[in-house]
Automatic annotation (TrEMBL):
The keyword Signal applies. InterPro entries: Bact_OuterMem_StrucFunc, Gly-zipper_YMGG, OMP_bac, OmpA-like, OmpA-like_sf. Residues 105-222 form the OmpA-like domain. It is found in: Cell outer membrane. This is OmpA/MotB domain protein. The chain crosses the membrane at residues 36-53, 65-83. It comes from the Bacteria. Residues 1-25 form the signal peptide. Pfam families: Gly-zipper_YMGG (PF13441), OmpA (PF00691).
């Protein structure tokens, strides 16, 4: 019942965003006003339940919550083996999906390109991307000894504040959908980085496309 409530709230926020689109007089693109972002923020945040949103180092707090809930922490050589298995399953399930799977130490990073996940200037998840997120959710539920950081990113087009708001909303949308698929909300940390962490140049269309993304970082649950 609780997860249905999460999903319903997220869906309500999604419909609200869609209903409050305006057309840019110069480009013809559909955009969501800043006022709309503020009004709908509470609905999306409510859908995220126990997830931590923005600000500060949340790792210790999440570790305590998960271990306190009876989910055992990984230790020693078991950490690498556990993450190896998770990486292999994600790679298999996400092949040809447009989502890259990268290993950095014991962390796994899923890079979800904005042009695949969202429409331009929107935080509404493309319906065709639901199956991809469903596959991610299956793995996250199977490998529940990981912490989940969801970070939204944009290119440098537009104001800093607008980009920050859009990146936060996109990260929240992805996290909310996964929580709606019964992934434990206490595992999540959600933040928008705006345009502050580019992975390519913003001077070309190709570079800006790479920078518009949502990243999911999976870190092993340990006691350290």
């Amino acid at each position: 019942m609780l997860m249905k409530k999460f999903a319903a709230l997220a869906l309500a926020a999604s419909f609200g965003l869609a209903a409050c689109q305006t057309q840019d007089a110069y480009t013809g693109e559909q955009k969501t006003s800043k006022a709309t972002y503020g009004a709908l923020g509470g609905a999306v945040i409510g859908a995220l339940g126990g997830a931590l949103i923005g600000g500060g180092d949340s790792t210790d707090r999440r570790q305590r919550a998960m271990i306190g809930a009876g989910i055992g922490a990984l230790a020693g050589g078991g950490v690498g083996y556990y993450m190896d298995k998770q990486e292999a399953e994600l790679t298999q399930r996400l092949r040809a999906s447009g989502v890259s799977v990268t290993r950095v130490g014991n962390d796994i990073i899923l890079n979800m390109p904005g042009n695949v996940t969202f429409a331009t200037n929107s935080s509404d998840i493309n319906a065709k991307f639901y199956d991809v997120l469903n596959s991610v959710a299956i793995v996250l539920k199977e490998y529940d000894k990981t912490l989940i950081d969801v970070t939204g990113h944009t290119d440098s087009t537009g104001s800093d504040q607008y980009n920050l708001e859009l990146s936060q909303k996109r990260a929240q949308s992805v996290a909310s959908y996964l929580i709606g698929q019964s992934v434990d909300s206490r595992r999540f940390y959600i933040v928008g980085a705006g345009e502050s962490q580019p992975i390519a140049t913003n001077d070309t269309p190709q570079g800006r496309e790479q920078n518009r993304r949502v990243e999911i970082r999976l870190s092993p649950l340990t006691t350290s």
